[in-house]
Specification:
272 residues; single chain; six-stranded mixed β-sheet; binds 2'-monophosphoadenosine-5'-diphosphate
Length: 272
């Protein structure tokens, strides 16, 4: 029941209507009978929004595109992981102090570690944007060998340099990908409405690969279809949302997230 003691959590972004966070977190709040509510707010002025949230004591704020960098100026404390990645996606209000973190990185790593021990593995990471940066940092922490493949070589070089990664190549030079252990798509290629696109051709993939596409809409991306046809192991994009969401839930409530509820809610929202 919503009453005067209900704690408000929200997601801010622009656009934000596509967000799966409200469904996922409200289902989990109900399951654990927590007096919390989760809403989505379309925000243009981040500074004004954060001042408002401070004064009305919002419990937790998820931050999505395009505000992951700009919010950093308006919080009180940023943890090391978010500082290194250079982006924030979750803020918790502790007695009026806004503490920020990044769960994109941990969400991706948790999804992979469910399947593989990353230490020493050769990873072909496709992309060098914000998402790739969060994933690359996590992989480096796990002591994997990370090779970046990106359309724009300069961004790939910068990422390799920032995190002391193991090398990079233009995305069109995809030959080396066949010899890696894991392929991760952290580009936006294949995302709806461009569902017929894949960042790499199917002959880069073998049955020895673990293929993780962080694109979650559509559920079965072209790359995932290629990987299935090659009998490679696959990780669907929603897993990063799931594990990132679990970390956010715990950050906001201090309670262990009910994984089955979050997963069921996510899968039913994605398959609609
Ligand atoms: P996000 O925060 O989701 O990572 P981003 O920072 O805009 O978004 O990064 C998008 C990534 O997808 C980049 O690596 C981009 O490649 P460029 O650095 O060359 O722009 C990649 N990308 C987007 N569209 C692409 C396309 N059509 N072909 C290949 N790569 C593409």
């Amino acid at each position: 029941m919503i009453n005067a003691k209900t704690k408000l959590c929200c997601i801010i972004g622009n656009p934000v209507e596509h967000s799966l966070s409200p469904q996922m977190h409200n289902a989990a709040f109900r399951k654990l009978e927590l007096n919390y509510i989760f809403l989505a707010f379309k925000v243009e002025n981040v500074k004004a929004a954060l001042e408002g949230f401070r004064s009305i004591v919002t419990k937790g704020i998820v931050v999505t595109i395009p505000h992951k960098l700009s919010v950093m100026k308006y919080v009180d404390e940023i943890d090391e992981i978010a500082l290194k990645i250079g982006a924030v996606n979750a803020i918790v209000n502790v007695k009026g102090k806004l503490n920020a973190t990044n769960t994109d990185c941990g969400g991706a790593i948790d999804a992979m570690e469910e399947n593989i021990n990353l230490k020493g593995k050769k990873i072909s990471l496709l992309g060098a944007g914000g998402a790739a940066r969060a994933v690359a940092y996590g992989l480096k922490m796990k002591r994997a060998k990370v090779y970046i493949y990106n359309r724009t070589l300069d961004s790939a070089k910068k990422l390799v340099n920032d995190f002391s990664l193991d090398g990079c190549s233009p995305l069109r030079n995809f030959k080396g990908i066949r010899n890696s252990d894991v392929i991760i798509n952290a580009t936006s290629v294949g995302m709806a409405p461009n569902e017929e696109q894949s960042p790499i051709p199917s002959d880069c993939i073998t049955s020895n690969h673990l293929v993780f596409d962080i694109v979650y809409a559509p559920h079965h991306t072209k790359l995932i279809k290629y990987a299935k046809a090659k009998k490679a192991k696959i990780i669907y994009g929603y897993k990063m949302v799931l594990y990132g969401g679990m970390r956010i839930f715990e950050f906001f409530t201090g309670k262990k997230a009910p994984k089955e509820v979050l997963e069921k809610t996510l899968l039913s929202a994605i398959s609609k």
